[in-house]
Amino acid sequence: MLSSFVISSCTIPSFNLLLRATFPYRVRAFAISSRLRNPTLFLPPPFKPFFATSSSFSSSSSSSSLNPLNACGSRTEDDSLVILGIETSCDDTAAAIVRSDGEILSQVVSSQADLLSRYGGVAPKMAEEAHVQVIDQVVQQALDNANLAEVDLSAVAVTIGPGLSLCLRVGVQKARRIAGKFNLPIIGIHHMEAHALVSRLIDKELQFPFLALLISGGHNLLILAHDLGHYLQLGTTIDDAIGEAYDKTARWLGLDMGKGGGPALEELAREGDPESVKFSIPMKQHKDCNFSYAGLKTQVRMAIESRNVNTDNPISAADCQDRKSRADIAASFQRVAVLHLEERCQRAIGWALNIAPSIKHLVVSGGVASNLYVRSRLDHVVTMNGLQLVCPPPNLCTDNGVMVAWTGVEHFRMGRFDPPPPADEADDFVFDLRPRWPLGEEYAEGRSEARSLRRARIHPSLTSIIQAASHQ
Ligand code: ADP
Ligand code: MG
């Protein structure tokens, strides 16, 4: 299913967050007129080099001032950069083109919802094949919808982790082919940072530091965003993420998974009594900001069995009584799943205000943040604490290319990117993929006693890489 909104890993040999590259190649930015708001006014853009080789990056390549915030000439507010973002970390193939003034020039998403609904989860090999089948078309459509060609781009941004290696590889390969052929810089993107930062695209007032709750099918993260590329992890899940619990519950209740389990469950829950099934809130005894949804899933399973819901029967074939039982379970599940978020956010706000008293916002993003019940409950928590909630629109909460392109804009402006790959890169080239890649270090005082947290960290955190680079 290919949808587009016109407004609407392998190894990069070194996604090394270059702070001061020399530029034997041309970095393009084009002066945008009104043509993209009014396509009929289109004229070929006048290209100009973004970094004049004599005065900016290349001229300031001494290692004495690598701090990206201070390095003279390594930062630009140029708002006419045009960046292609590619996202294939899990089950959505997405591409978008975003200009550095925040204008979304195009957005295309091809979802694998049909595969998910058939197989009940993401099967990496099948997901990879689905990405391979559509990636060229998705990127081409993003270019076409923006009335651009590859030569018009300033850079290519692509998700390099975390995610499924087989899937990440498809996007990275495509990005490198374009960047190699058209001599464009490339920016490796952290998927979860992109979920958080897209909120700065939609809310220009949103300044660092802020608190962010990132909730999706594979992640449950509470982070304190001190600055671009500088994150402190306050909490994560010790087992499943909330989106996984929504998807499983929806499947067990026989819902139509065609548009995803989460939306189907949200809809059915509106018919149910949220107090009817007494599920217990996870991790009540743990006074930290970590999450757990595996136990709630088990409780749901038991409730379904004890109410004799015939889960082989789709909801469309359920009689009135059966439908009511399912709706009650859905509503009760949702209430407790979200209460768990509320409790953790309440505590995280306290922690965050201690660490960074100037925070004013809680960003909530990731697929589950498109849920209206989630938004309204978290809005209540945030308001009670004198903060503001920032939620991207639903199509920017679920996986998308805009968030990748925009995060590319933010890092590119700071001079963090790699030079173009060779145009003739071999097909079996080993890319730098980061399937397990933390955003930041854990907040020491927030470590959970309930530690079944998966510790295997193949890569150092994004934050530590950026800090190491800026202290070089
Ligand atoms: P990923 O987990 O691959 O990063 P997304 O960020 O796109 O993917 O999030 C997908 C998850 O969000 C899925 O688990 C899906 O069920 C969930 N989701 C999407 N919309 C809703 C909704 N309205 N209510 C609850 N969950 C939702
Ligand atoms: Mg996601």
UniProtKB/TrEMBL annotation:
InterPro entries hit by this protein: ATPase_NBD, Gcp-like_dom, KAE1/TsaD, TsaD
SUPFAM superfamilies the record matches: Actin-like ATPase domain
Record flagged with keyword Acyltransferase: yes
Subcellular location: Mitochondrion
Primary location group: mitochondrion
Cofactor info, note text: Binds 1 divalent metal cation per subunit.
GO cellular component: mitochondrion
Boundaries of every Gcp-like domain copy: 103-406
A GO biological-process term: tRNA threonylcarbamoyladenosine modification
Keywords: Acyltransferase, Metal-binding, Mitochondrion, Transferase, Transit peptide, tRNA processing
One function term, GO molecular function aspect: metal ion binding
Role: Required for the formation of a threonylcarbamoyl group on adenosine at position 37 (t(6)A37) in mitochondrial tRNAs that read codons beginning with adenine. Probably involved in the transfer of the threonylcarbamoyl moiety of threonylcarbamoyl-AMP (TC-AMP) to the N6 group of A37. Involved in mitochondrial genome maintenance.
NCBIfam families: gcp_kae1, T6A_TsaD_YgjD
Protein name: Glycoprotease 1
Source species of the chain: Cinnamomum micranthum f. kanehirae
